[in-house]
From TrEMBL:
Residues 136-161 are annotated as: Disordered. This is Transposase-associated domain-containing protein. Residues 5-85 form the Transposase-associated domain. InterPro entries: Transpos_assoc (IPR029480). Residues 136-146 have a biased composition (Acidic residues). It holds the Pfam family Transpos_assoc.
């Protein structure tokens, strides 16, 4: 199988309105890849990445092939993660930026990767980072519970008058 997936974003028809050889080869490579990496629990079906199905529906590989010929594949679907592709794209060190944030005695390293996601890599000597948040949540829950009790008592008193 070729690793070149540029066929996904190219026009699937040639000047004579026939499917290009590149597109047909790409579809065949995709079907083989999806079949080889399918989940046995899916009962011989694979997700259909055509423009209409958008990986929402499981179909027989021959039906997926027809859909891809008729509807085209989603133009952005070049990493076939829903079809068993496991390799993560490599991130060059030069493409990342990081900054250290200090929280008490603990250091938190925030790394920004090229896909604009933030990943929190945290190094703790002891696991107290969330303690303040949990305490605040517990206090807030207690206040809400007390408020509900007061409202219930008030409505009981209103019923008596």
């Amino acid at each position: 199988m070729t690793s070149d997936r540029s066929w996904v974003s190219r026009n699937r028809y040639n000047e004579f309105k026939y499917l290009t050889e590149e597109y047909k080869i790409g579809v065949n490579d995709f079907i083989k890849f999806a079949w080889d990496n399918r989940d046995p629990e899916d009962g011989g079906l694979i997700r259909c990445p055509c423009e209409d199905c958008a990986n929402k529906y499981f179909k027989d590989p021959s039906d997926v092939k027809v859909d891809l010929y008729l509807n085209g594949i989603m133009k952005w679907y070049t990493r076939w993660d829903l079809h068993g592709e496991r390799d993560m794209p490599r991130v060059e060190v030069a493409e990342t930026s990081a900054r250290n944030v200090h929280y008490g005695d603990e250091d938190i390293v925030i790394v920004r990767d090229p896909t604009n996601f933030f990943v929190d890599l945290t190094m703790f000597e002891n696991n107290h980072f969330m303690d303040d948040y949990v305490e605040e949540q517990n206090e807030s829950d207690d206040e809400d519970q007390n408020e509900n009790i007061n409202i219930d008592e008030q409505s009981d008193n209103d019923d008596l008058t």
